[in-house]
Automatic annotation (TrEMBL):
PANTHER family the UniProt entry points to: DNA-3-METHYLADENINE GLYCOSYLASE 1 (PTHR30037), DNA-3-METHYLADENINE GLYCOSYLASE I (PTHR30037:SF4)
Protein name as annotated: DNA-3-methyladenine glycosylase 1
Superkingdom assignment: Bacteria
Organism: Phaeobacter inhibens
Recorded coiled-coil stretches: none
Pfam families listed in its UniProt record: Adenine_glyco (PF03352)
Length: 207
């Protein structure tokens, strides 16, 4: 697939944004813009873990179902889920019925509680892995980076599950920790402007 495609409005977008009808709005309004909201960050790392071995189109189509099933990704509620909830979710045809991934979300909700207690917020932790200006890779040339490897390693050290380096890099792309829009994509400049106006939560906390 080419790095860009010509969208119906006559503007170039990342090539993947043209591979499914529902991708264009997600690409234009969500993907690659910096996010500091803890609930959105937790939701995304969970959805990326569900995507492992599957397509993002599958997950995006079921996103509202996932939100309903997992209490809007309020980790304080999900952390209280028990065996009966796992059984319930395994019967929910609206989500991906994979026991390991379901149990990983519950586990990660508990780990998120620990992280907020230790780090102040999920955002402060995740944004501490933002690559520096001299650590950026050319757009859409990598599926893992040293930062995603380091993030994965630290999450696993903290007992998070289904958070491999590829999953972590996809999370970093989507949540704007890197601007991975293709060079000629109309959204690359928009994402860069959003990042320029954004103060990293890790920096705010350090200050």
């Amino acid at each position: 697939m080419s790095k860009e495609f010509l969208a119906p409005d006559g503007q170039l977008r990342c090539g993947w944004a043209g591979s499914a009808p529902e991708f264009l709005a997600y690409h234009d309004h969500e993907w690659g813009y910096p996010v500091a909201d803890d609930k959105r960050l937790f939701e995304k790392i969970c959805l990326e873990s569900f995507q492992s071995g599957l397509s993002w189109r599958t997950i995006l189509a079921k996103r509202e179902n996932f939100r309903a099933a997992f209490a809007g990704f309020d980790w304080s509620q999900v952390a209280r889920f028990g065996p009966q909830d796992v059984d319930r979710l395994l019967q929910d045809a609206g989500i991906i019925r994979h026991r390991g991934k379901i149990e990983a979300v519950i586990n990660n909700a508990r780990r998120a509680e620990d992280m907020v207690a230790e780090e102040g917020s999920l955002a402060a932790f995740f944004w501490s892995y933002e690559p520096g200006p001299d650590e950026q890779v050319p757009p859409q040339t990598a599926s893992i980076t040293p930062q995603s490897i380091a993030l994965s390693k630290e999450l696993k050290k903290r007992s998070w599950k289904f958070v491999g380096p590829t999953t972590c890099f996809a999370f970093m792309q989507a949540m704007g920790l890197v601007n991975d829009h293709a060079t000629d994509c109309i959204c690359r400049k928009k994402a860069a402007q959003a990042r320029a106006a954004f103060t990293s939560p890790a920096v705010r906390q350090a200050g």
